[in-house]
Amino acid sequence: MAGGIPATYVPARNLIFLSLAVGIAEARGAGTVYLGVNAVDYSGYPDCRPAFVDAFRATAALALKRGVEGDPLDVRTPLIDLTKADIVRLGVDLEAPLHLTWSCYREGPAPCGDCDSCALRARGFAEAGVGDPAAAAAGA
After folding, report:
1. 61-79 pLDDT per residue, tens
2. Residue 33 in 3-state DSSP?
3. Whole-model pTM?
4. Are 87 and 98 within 8 A, CB to CB?
5. DSSP 90-114
């Protein structure tokens, strides 16, 4: 997390996910797509910024039938302005299955605990005062 684009950057990741999601949403008649990006604890990913999401919304409004007809698809980012600790607290409050979540970019039976994503996650759980079930599974 030394600044700049991290080694874990995946080119066009959210652009691809959102493109598929809005296409499926329009085909199924859904009015909203949710994206779990977060900009507060931003670790250098350009596709997690509000500017990217805003530009994508505008593009989707021009690219989809419903947008051209005046009913653009809603792209929501409910986590974008929350800290990692706030996200953990929200997950606990909603009784989300946090034991099923995975942040690590490395392969293995358990998170590595060393990469930027693991460090951000660990900090979020620690600041929330909540034990991380992924760390428990890794034996940490």
Report:
1. 999 999 999 999 999 999 9
2. strand
3. 0.83
4. no
5. HHHHTT--GGG-----S-SSS--S-
